[in-house]
Specification:
This protein is mostly beta strands. It is 0% helix and 32% strand. The chain contains no helices and 14 strands. Strands 1-14-3-12-9 form a 5-stranded antiparallel beta sheet, with no helix packed on it. The protein has a 3-stranded antiparallel beta sheet with strand order 6-7-8, with no helix packed on it. A hairpin with a 4-residue loop joins strand 6 and strand 7.
Length: 198
C-alpha cells in the first residue's frame, strides 16, 4: 500500500432486536423494523354472526369483515352469515399459506384455521375469527323446529418475507376485520393480525 493511502472501513449492518406485535381490532400503521432473518405476518378474518330464533321466525346474522394489508396484497376474508342453510367460511389470498375458514355445522359456528373455534347454540365465536353459534325456533304452522346455522369461520393466511424483501422503515397499513353481528348475542369473533420478526 502506498504511503498516505488508507484501507476503507467496513460498516457493520445494524438490526433491530426480534419482536412481535398483535392487532385485535381497528386500523393500524406498522413501521417495518430492520429485521435480520425474516418478517412473518399471520392474519385472520372476522367470524360470521350466527342466526337467532325468534317467536315464530328468525333473524339472520351478518358476515364477518375482511382483514387486509393492501400494500402487500394480503386478504383474509370474513366468514359468511348464519341463516337457514350452511354459512361458508372466509377465503384468503396473498399468503404462502391461504386457508379457508370452516363452514358452519348445523347450529355450531365455523372455526378459523389456527384460530378461534365456532360458538355453540346461541353463543358467540372465539377469537380470532370463530363464527357465532346458530339457533332454532318452532314453526307452529308446520309444527316443526327449524334449525338456523352458525356463522362461518374467518379465513387465515401466513406470509413470510426474507431479509430485505420489505425495506426497513416502510409503513404498512393493516385493517382488522370485525366479527359479524349475530341475530342475538351470538356474534362472530373479530379477526387478528400477528407480525413477528427476527
Amino acid at each position: 500500500m502506498a504511503i498516505g493511502q488508507f484501507m476503507p472501513l467496513s460498516v457493520a449492518e445494524v438490526f433491530d432486536p426480534p419482536g412481535s406485535v398483535t392487532y385485535n381490532s381497528g386500523t393500524h400503521s406498522f413501521v417495518v423494523p430492520a429485521y435480520k432473518t425474516f418478517l412473518r405476518i399471520r392474519m385472520w378474518g372476522g367470524g360470521g354472526g350466527g342466526a337467532r330464533g325468534l317467536i315464530g321466525g328468525s333473524s339472520n346474522g351478518k358476515s364477518g369483515g375482511a382483514t387486509t394489508c393492501s400494500s402487500l396484497g394480503l386478504t383474509a376474508n370474513g366468514g359468511g352469515y348464519g341463516r337457514r342453510g350452511t354459512a361458508p367460511g372466509g377465503t384468503a389470498s396473498g399468503g404462502d399459506i391461504n386457508t379457508t375458514g370452516g363452514s358452519s355445522s348445523s347450529m355450531t359456528g365455523g372455526s378459523s384455521p389456527n384460530g378461534g373455534s365456532g360458538g355453540s347454540q346461541a353463543q358467540p365465536g372465539k377469537a380470532p375469527g370463530g363464527g357465532g353459534g346458530g339457533d332454532r325456533y318452532y314453526n307452529s304452522g308446520n309444527e316443526e323446529y327449524v334449525t338456523l346455522s352458525g356463522g362461518g369461520g374467518g379465513g387465515y393466511l401466513q406470509k413470510q418475507y426474507s431479509k430485505g424483501a420489505v425495506p426497513a422503515g416502510s409503513v404498512l397499513s393493516f385493517s382488522v376485520g370485525s366479527g359479524g353481528a349475530g341475530g342475538g348475542s351470538n356474534n362472530g369473533a373479530n379477526g387478528r393480525v400477528i407480525i413477528e420478526w427476527e
